[in-house]
Every structure is written in C-alpha cells, then in structure tokens.
Task: inverse folding
C-alpha cells in the first residue's frame, strides 16, 4: 500500500497547477480507482482462508490499508466520503465468523452500495470449456470455512429489496466478476 500511495503521490504532482475544482475532481477519480482496484485485487485472488485467525489477520490488514488510503486521499483533496466505508465493510465481513453477523454486514454493504451483485459476494466454482477451472471471484470465497448452506443464506439477503435508490454513485458495477 505504501508503494501505491507513493507512486500516486508522485503522479499527483503533475496536477498541482490545476485550479481546485479540477484538481479535486481528478483526486476523487483517483480515490475511486484506488478503492476499486483494491477490491478487484482482493476478490480476484484465489485465497481461501479456512481459519478465523487467518481471516482476522487479513481483516486487520485491509482495515489498516483502508485507513491509510482514506487519509491519503482526504489529505490530497478528495471529498468522496461515500467510498470510505467500502473496504472496512469488506474487512468486517472477512473478520466475522457467524453467518447472521455476515448477513447483517452484507445487507449494510448492499444498502450503501446498491450496485453490488450476488456474484461480487459469492461465486461458485465453475468449469469452463475443456475442463479449465474458472477461479472464484467473490468476497465470501475468502472465507473458506463457510458451508454452502450458509453462503446461500447470506446471499438470500440480497434478494430482499432494501437497496437504496438515492445513491447515484457506483462502485461495484465497474468491477467485473465471472
């Protein structure tokens, strides 16, 4: 994360001569891009952590990165506060061990980011043509200790139409999953 922030900071110096509304707009786009890319890297890795200790460790790392990224972007002029809760919510989903708690966090995530889909939350192992395995690309795949019935139960929370229609911001729709 330090390398990403340093590289971003180096490139931001090119835009320092822009007047504030333009610089702020660029910084907000960069903020959104960094959060999206973090989520992409997180859910597209084929990492399945089976123990609560490993999940807690990853959750702590994500929380630390989220805090660092949020501080950096705010310091550089981003006012996109709607992005601030995405990574901490994902960290909490990874940390939690009971499916009811995970359901609540997934529902909260879906209310905050209505463009999230079931594919972002959980994907099944697919076999493509010629028997090549398509990797899982989802948040719950990281939680390697969930039963299929628990995953289905958690996903059912997304069937409930509680999604906010007031948010015009999209985060997950730009993240393609298979």
Result:
């Amino acid at each position: 994360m330090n390398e990403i922030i340093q590289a971003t900071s180096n490139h931001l110096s090119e835009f320092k001569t822009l007047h504030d509304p333009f610089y702020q707009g660029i910084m907000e786009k960069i903020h959104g891009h960094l959060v999206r890319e973090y989520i992409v890297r997180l859910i597209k890795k084929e990492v399945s952590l089976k123990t609560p200790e490993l999940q807690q460790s990853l959750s702590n790392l994500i929380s630390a990165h989220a805090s660092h990224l949020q501080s950096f972007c705010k310091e550089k002029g981003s006012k996109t506060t709607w992005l601030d809760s995405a990574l901490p919510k994902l960290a909490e989903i990874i940390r939690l061990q009971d499916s009811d708690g995970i359901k609540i966090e997934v529902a909260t995530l879906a209310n905050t980011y209505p463009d999230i889909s079931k594919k972002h939350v959980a994907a099944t192992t697919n076999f493509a043509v010629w028997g090549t395995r398509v990797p899982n690309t989802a948040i719950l795949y990281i939680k390697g200790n969930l039963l299929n019935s628990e995953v289905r139960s958690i996903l059912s929370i997304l069937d409930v139409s509680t999604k906010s229609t007031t948010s015009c911001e999209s985060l997950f729709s730009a993240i393609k999953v298979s």
Summary: The first helix runs from residue 2 to 12. The chain has seven helices and two strands. Strands lie at 126-127, 133-134. The mean pLDDT is 86.
